[in-house]
Design goal:
Layout lengths: L2 E2 L10 H14 L7 E2 L5 E9 L5 E3 L8 E4 L2 E4 L5 E8 L4 H11 L9 E9 L2 E6 L6 H8 L7 E6 L12 H41 L3
């Protein structure tokens, strides 16, 4: 289970340190997703973000797959577990901009304020997660940690239940969510009914065997 960790202080690097780290980073890359340093000091590169969304998202496209509930031109659906997205960003891009880019890539109509970006680190057989502030720069964190995702990975999640900005949801979104929950509740109810019907049938068979005349 993830252990929450406080944000670490930001350490600024000189231009020479950035150049050296990018060279070391690129020499360690195994997936060809290298970083590029521009003459103005800004560098670009790639980050991978794992989508760990528990609630359905609302999209404006009919091309989505999975359990859906429709409302006008929008669709609410659950994103498949373990979905990972790769983004090409620059060192100036903030966490908030990364979240907005991810949602745009998936044609998500939900308010970006509903989501948060976390960094996940492995240390001493423990997994630590830390919610990043909107002003942090993910590519800088990737550069400092190196290309290995075991050292650092990014995760997109909804805000914790107590932090959800319900006012950011529209009425159609909430209605879609309720339709999906009703559908899931009915599916689970049917599963339970079938399970208990099977138990009842076995019990009746057992009773019939016990009371069967010798």
């Amino acid at each position: 289970q993830d252990v929450q960790k406080e944000s670490e202080p930001h350490v600024y690097l000189s231009k020479e340190e950035v150049k050296e780290k990018i060279q070391n980073y690129n020499s360690s890359v195994t997936d060809k997703l290298k970083m590029t340093l521009n003459t103005n000091g800004i560098y670009t590169g790639f980050i991978k973000v794992q989508m760990e969304l528990c609630r359905p998202i609302t999209v404006q496209s009919s091309q989505s797959q999975g359990r859906c509930a429709h409302s006008n031109n929008e669709t609410a659906f659950y994103l498949p577990d373990g979905c990972v997205n790769t983004l090409h960003i620059s060192s100036t891009n903030t966490v908030r901009e990364v979240i907005e880019a991810l949602l745009k890539k998936f044609f998500v109509a939900d308010n970006p304020a509903k989501f948060a970006l976390y960094k996940r680190c492995h240390k001493e057989d423990q997994v630590y997660t830390c919610k990043l502030s909107d002003r942090e720069h993910p590519l800088y964190l990737r550069l400092v940690a190196g290309p290995r995702t075991e050292m650092l990975s990014f995760v997109l999640r909804e805000h914790e239940t107590g932090e959800v900005m319900w006012e950011a949801f529209t009425v159609p979104e909430l209605q879609n969510f309720l339709r999906i929950l009703d559908k899931e509740e009915n599916e689970q109810l049917q599963i339970l009914k079938k399970r208990y019907a099977a138990y009842r049938e076995k019990l009746e068979e057992a009773l019939g065997g016990v009371w069967k005349p010798g």
